[in-house]
TrEMBL record:
Coiled coil: none annotated. This is Integral membrane protein. Residues 15-24 have a biased composition (Low complexity). It comes from the Bacteria.
Length: 801
């Protein structure tokens, strides 16, 4: 509410907070605006507004607000819009699925999942020390994913192509594009070091592409600044009900992403330089060339020094959300990638120096780095789990927190697993292709093939899929049991005069049972993460025990065991490659097919809501554009026109709406009502991201705004109740709504009513009823111009504790 020293909103209506107000006998008509925000998958403004004639009010081709053509000038004639609110649609689907090239972001899935782990920490008090440790561990884990990607690119280009195949006449035969690298030609590029230096261009292009993509999206997404806040008195919100989502700088991460981008780019370049160094150093030591050894050691020291600086930058790059972090970085941070490029150039010259008698034999030295990366990632995940456990024990409200606070570590582990599958799948499939019909790693193969760890990882994939299949079967059994139990209660929800229909009843009950599987998602995540950790540790141990391919490791075993190992390795190898091919195929199809592009866009609608706080190469956060858009629109419209505003969000749009309301200044926030339907705010975000959407945070949001109503259905697999009660005893939740609206055929519904599930909440009469109640309830909060004796704000019927 406003105080005596806080001016209310000014605007065309003449409310200036002075005694020069217009007479109370001639109040100016006040508009009401309903700001619609669509959910996942997107839609068109014509469908949102129910009119083929729409006009863009503000925005651009990426995200904009639209109105019906008849309502475009509603502010100029407010008297014509007193019975119904003016409807305005905010369309943001092009932020995620509008451009076909964005479908290629599918290859960035490991980075996106690692970034999610940052936001999934338990809701411990802000002063808890473990919070900083948790965030640091996630950032370090994200850095290992970049190193893993660069190492995989080096494995394909440097080891398999330039070192193994190009140095083996049998492998080069029939590959004209590799002929100039063959030692048989005695050409300038046939020297092993020069072959490696030339091949290093490929992983460098991969890292450069990620840098360019991150920089391009950084300029488009992280550059949307929040609106300025006006000073205002706050309702006394307890500290435990405050959330970082209402801080000025939460959706403005330009400097942080720029720092992480510099660090991760440097890490990728240094990985390439290290791959070049290990081969040349071993050759120089064997040849006893002291000068080249000293030069190599100097380059190694430079790589180690820059790597330490990179880790230091990542260590110190924590989010600062209290205010927009729009300062400039230290020149040393900006210079890190360029210094790494300089070291890489010197390393390439050093590697390409002529060394008489040098030849490439066996795998490239340093392939054991894959095992080191896997062990480091496992250690970081375990440390993250311990830290999350301490945070969960100190959490304010842990009753519905997913996996007892272990959601972040589980998701972080899955990001490492996905990264391993993608990198290993590319390496194994490429080795199969370039090595000819013989599979790499066998006695009769023309080249040794990729590191044995990748083959072990391929061998455990079928076992992981078996576990996932078992969980899926159990989920199916659960659906059948719940469906049979719910079917007994379905007819009682409708008019008893309607004739019972067993098939219709089973269909409705089955929809309700399948929608309930969302609440069982933690079980699937926990089972997958536990099996992944166990099998991953087994793969690392197996690769460490034996220095040969899994097929040889079981050569002395019984025939059945040997055949099982061979089958698991081959099947896993194909599955790893198939996963990569599937992602690329989906990206190619999405580039040509608009419907497929929208389907893939749904994945990003859910996965890229959060800012890039851990990994700068993750797909960009669309909310860093959408939330400021909505905040600016609500703040400027209420100030200019002094009207009533209801922001109405469906599905993911309700999450954007709530985040935008949190960003409003307290005076404006008290003048806005929130209507959510099909909302995952508590069911998904509250459970998996408790530090930001837990019950205390949602309670604080409702305390500081005029009113909030939420509609939900049992048949909705995404939305659910908020599970909060208003201060005056009224519940926020309105539901469960009846779905379908009619059980059978009636005079009003001659055809069977559709089961709506997650969509078309506006078709329910309750929707219009609740919206009208919000508009009516919001009205008394904006009184006509007042005199000096009148209070600054009228009472809304709710205490402002």
């Amino acid at each position: 509410m406003e105080t005596a020293d806080t001016p209310p909103h000014g605007g065309p209506t003449g409310r200036t907070g002075t005694t020069d107000a217009a007479p109370a006998t001639a109040p100016v008509p006040q508009l009401s605006l309903e700001l619609l925000v669509h959910g996942v998958g997107g839609t068109t403004p014509e469908k949102m507004l129910g009119d083929p004639r729409v006009e863009r009010i503000t925005g651009d081709d990426t995200a904009a607000c639209y109105r019906r053509t008849d309502d475009a000038d509603a502010e100029e004639r407010p008297g014509d819009h007193l019975s119904e609110p003016v409807r305005e649609a905010y369309c943001w689907s092009n932020l995620t699925s509008g451009n076909g090239a964005r479908a290629l972001w599918l290859i960035l899935v490991p980075f996106m999942v690692a970034n999610l782990a940052h936001w999934m920490r338990p809701a411990a008090p802000p002063e808890h020390r473990a919070q900083r440790i948790y965030d640091l561990l996630v950032r370090l884990l994200a850095l290992t994913l970049t190193v893993l990607l660069a190492a995989a690119a080096c494995e394909v280009a440097l080891d398999l192509t330039a070192w193994q195949c190009a140095g083996t006449p049998v492998c080069v035969a029939g590959k004209s594009w590799l002929g100039f690298l063959s030692p048989d030609n005695a050409g300038w590029w046939s020297v092993p070091g020069r072959r490696l230096a030339l091949a290093s261009v490929v992983p460098l292009m991969v890292v450069g592409f990620l840098w360019w993509l991150s920089h391009r999206t950084w300029s488009a997404y992280e550059s949307a600044s929040p609106p300025p806040r006006r000073p205002g008195a706050s309702r006394d919100t307890p500290a435990e009900e405050r959330t970082a989502l209402n801080l000025d700088g939460f959706w403005y991460g330009r400097r942080l992403v720029a720092r992480l981008r510099a660090a991760h780019t440097t890490a990728g370049i240094l990985t390439i330089a290290a791959a070049l160094l290990v081969a040349s150093l071993r050759t120089d030591r064997r040849a006893g060339d002291g000068t080249l050894v000293v030069l190599g050691q100097g380059l190694t020291a430079s790589v180690v020094l820059l790597a330490a600086g990179t880790v230091l930058v990542v260590w110190r790059t924590a989010r600062s959300e209290a205010a927009p972090d729009d300062g400039s970085d230290h020149p040393a941070v900006r210079a890190l990638p360029y210094a790494a490029l300089g070291v890489l150039a010197l390393t390439a010259v050093h590697a390409g120096w002529a060394r008489p008698g040098a030849r490439s034999h066996g795998p490239l030295p340093g392939v054991a780095a894959f095992g080191g990366i896997a062990v480091l990632q496992g250690a970081l995940v375990l440390a993250l789990a311990v830290t999350a456990w301490f945070l969960w024990r100190a959490a304010r409200d842990e009753a519905r927190t997913a996996l007892r606070g272990m959601g972040g570590p589980a998701v972080a582990l899955l990001s490492c697993a996905v990264g391993g599958v993608l990198s290993g799948g590319v390496a194994v499939r490429f080795a199969d292709w370039i090595g000819g019909p013989a599979a790499p790693g066998r006695d009769h193969a023309p080249i040794p093939g990729p590191p044995v760890l990748l083959s072990w990882q391929a061998s455990v994939i079928p076992a992981l899929l078996v576990v996932v299949a078992v969980v899926a079967v159990l989920a199916g059994i659960r659906v059948i049991v719940v469906r049979n139990r719910v079917a007994e209660d379905v007819p009682g929800l409708y008019d008893p005069r309607e004739r019972p229909d067993a098939l219709r009843t089973r269909r409705i009950a089955g929809t309700i049972a399948r929608a309930g599987l969302t609440d069982a998602a933690p079980v699937l995540v926990a089972a997958t993460a536990a099996v992944t950790l166990t099998l991953g540790a087994g793969a690392v141990a197996g690769a460490w025990i034996t220095d040969q391919a899994p097929g040889r490791a079981t050569a002395g075993a019984p025939p059945v065991l040997h055949a099982a190992a061979e089958t698991a390795e081959s099947l896993g190898s194909w599955l790893m490659g198939a996963g990569v091919i599937l992602l690329l195929a989906m990206g190619r199809r999405a580039y040509r097919d608009h419907s497929a592009r929208r389907t893939i866009g749904i994945l990003w609608d859910v996965g890229t809501f959060w800012p890039r706080a851990a990994h700068p190469f993750a797909p960009p956060c669309y909310a860093e554009r959408a939330v400021p858009d909505l905040t600016w629109r609500m703040a400027t419209w209420t100030e200019r026109f002094d009207g009533r505003l209801v922001i109405s969000g469906h599905s993911q749009g309700s999450v954007l709406a709530a985040a935008a309301v949190w960003q409003l200044d307290l005076v404006t926030r008290s003048r806005v009502a929130l209507l959510t339907y099909g909302s995952p705010l508590e069911r998904l975000y509250g459970r998996w991201f408790p530090a930001y959407f837990g019950p205390p945070a949602l309670t604080g949001l409702h305390r500081e705004m005029d009113d909030w109503r939420n509609l939900w259905r049992f048949t909705d697999p995404i939305g659910g109740p908020i599970r909060l009660t208003c201060e005056d005893g009224r519940r926020i939740d309105e539901g469960p709504l009846r779905d379908p609206l009619a059980f059978g055929r009636t005079l009003q519904n001659p055809l069977p009513a559709q089961i709506l599930g997650h969509g078309d909440y506006q078709a329910d009469p309750v929707f219009d009823k609740v919206r009208a109640e919000l508009i009516a309830r919001l009205g008394p909060r904006i009184p006509p111009p007042r005199t000096e004796q009148e209070p600054a704000h009228g009472s809304s019927g709710r205490s402002s504790a």
